[in-house]
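REQUEST ID: PR-0412
SUBMITTED BY: lab tech R.K.
PRIORITY: routine
TASK: structure prediction, single protein chain
INPUT:
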Amino acid sequence: MNDDLLRCLSHLIGRVAIPATEVRSIIGPGKNRIKAFNLFDGTQTIQDVVHKTDINQGNLSTAAASWVEHGIAFWIGEGRDARLLHIYPIPEKELRRKKGTKKA
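STATUS: complete
OUTPUT:
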């Protein structure tokens, strides 16, 4: 239960600190990159995500390092047990806003 509470807290703080539009721009273009980012929920290795997205492992490792550097993901564990955890999942499709409404 403590892991779930900590995960919830990190998602909440992440949403307050970095808006989804900024996270989306850091992730980069492409459905596969967003899918990969969302798969990093703290339970999967880079190799697991490579198999589920067909992204080259080198490219995914570089992207993951960039995401950590930009503060939208962080490592949990050490060595072979290390797992990447995103600050919160990003919807694959960006929500369209009505004209005249402000972005949050």
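NOTES: The chain has one domain: 2-86.
REVIEWED BY: pending
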